[in-house]
Amino acid sequence: MDAIAERAGANKRLLYHYFGNKEDLYRAVLLDAYAEIRAGERELNLEALSPDEAMDRLVRFTFRHFLDKPWFTSLLSTENVQNAAFLKSLPDIPALHSPLVGQIEKILEQGRAEGIFRDGIDPIQLYISIAALGYFYVSNMKTLSVIFERDLGATNMIQEREAQAVQMVLRYLWKPGVQPVREL
Distance (Å, rounded) from C-alpha 135 to C-alpha 66? Predict the structure, then answer.
């Protein structure tokens, strides 16, 4: 709490008064981190786009969120090491995620109705795959850069990976034999 108060330029006593203890402060940070990504997803206005454009935008947003906020991947990694102990104690988490799942399901339904997306895609599994494509790249960028002797943080490498993530998701979604609506 001392380091947090100093870094924030805040009074430590006020932090304790407002949050109670460091565990409650951590819970607040965790909840805020999830609320931030969900708010960004809502701002994408995916329902106004064609199904393939909506998925493209969601993949790019998710990738960029992890890239622009590397602290978020660190926070998720920490919470996973702790067996999601603090996340389990946040009653607001399911409500934050359910609109996203519903939104993805609507995009999938629209794509199926238009004859471009195949049947049998679970929206939760799809989102996990989308998140994994960005999370793994960002959380392992430094070690992978050393292993493959490439600067994966370079702009061209990031752009290439983002484009590949979009292609992977869209090609997974497209119904066999369907030609892309637009060039990838």
Answer: 6
